[in-house]
Design brief:
Elements: E1 2-6, H1 9-26, E2 31-34, H2 41-52, E3 62-65, E4 67-69, H3 80-87, E5 99-100, H4 109-122, E6 128-131, E7 153-156, H5 159-165, E8 178-181, H6 184-188, E9 192-197, H7 203-211, E10 229-234
Parallel strand pairs: 1-10, 2-3, 2-6, 3-5, 6-9, 9-10
Antiparallel strand pairs: 4-8, 7-8
Helix pairs in contact: 1-2
Bound molecules: fructose -6-phosphate.
Fructose -6-phosphate binds next to loops.
Subunit structure: Homohexamer.
EC number: 3.5.99.6
Pfam family, one: Glucosamine_iso
């Protein structure tokens, strides 16, 4: 596992975006695994700028997002499909049909998860998977105690994760406690993994991820077992490291 510690969130976003840009320059038809949340927002901004400046194209790219809330329509302002369209897809030259986000309103969620796994396989697997990390060490919505070989499935969110994400919802708005998520085994199948994290509230999770034992108590710790995983973090997030 390669650890890159940079001064601040802007440097993390710039480094992360450059990784994606280089990947797309080397392989224009890359399959990307993508994340939502606050962590990748600035990275996507830089990627959009690079595409709009003609530095790189996403016309041949296929994407698979990590997760989606169960019970939210794609049009809901807090659905991850809406997030991706807003922050990236609508602003670049990607074919919307080549962007895949799990369907939060699926009538048969488990079937949708199996179909998602099959689709990733059909596309030859994920070349580069972008990840954030939860304060409790989750990746995707694989909460602590998730099987380290899990596949795409329905997952109950922990109270901590629900609380952490409450900031995105209106005070009296329905906030799902269930999500569809790629499994840890699914994530680990990616040829390369890039995790970005900033801020002191991620320091404890990163300490367990990098220096702790590999354990389902900290799902991100499995990245120690990946041959090509890079963690790009800022100084504040690196505070707990020895
Ligand atoms: C989002 C995802 C989550 C987030 C994590 C961190 O698609 O998979 O694992 O990466 O919850 O969220 P932020 O970046 O908002 O702190």
């Amino acid at each position: 596992m390669r650890i890159v510690i940079l001064p601040d969130p802007a440097a993390v976003a710039a480094f992360g975006a450059q990784q994606l840009i280089s990947q797309l320059q080397q392989k224009p038809s890359s399959v990307l695994g993508l994340a939502t949340g606050s962590s990748p927002v600035q990275l996507y901004k830089r990627l959009v700028q690079a595409v709009q400046a003609g530095q790189v194209s996403m016309a041949e790219v296929t994407t698979f997002n990590l997760d989606e809330y169960l019970g939210l329509a794609t049009t809901h302002s807090q659905s991850y499909r809406h997030f991706m369209n807003t922050h990236l897809f609508d602003q670049v030259d990607i074919r919307l049909a080549a962007t895949h986000v799990l369907d939060g309103l699926s009538s048969d969620p488990q079937k949708a998860c199996s179909a998602y796994e099959a689709l990733i396989r059909d596309q030859g697997g994920v070349d580069l998977q972008l990840l954030g990390i939860g304060r409790n060490g989750h990746i995707g919505f694989n909460e602590p105690s998730s099987s380290l070989v899990s596949r795409t499935r329905v997952k109950t969110l922990t109270e901590d994760t629900v609380a952490a994400n409450r900031r995105f919802f209106q005070p009296d708005e329905f906030q799902p406690h269930l999500a569809l998520t790629m499994g840890i085994g699914t994530i680990m199948d990616a040829k390369q993994i890039l995790l970005i994290a900033t801020g002191q509230d991620k320091a404890e999770a990163l300490r367990h991820t990098i220096e702790g034992p590999v354990s389902a108590h900290c799902p991100a710790s499995i990245l120690q077992m990946h041959a090509k995983a890079t963690l790009v973090i800022d100084k504040a997030a690196a505070q707990g490291l020895q």
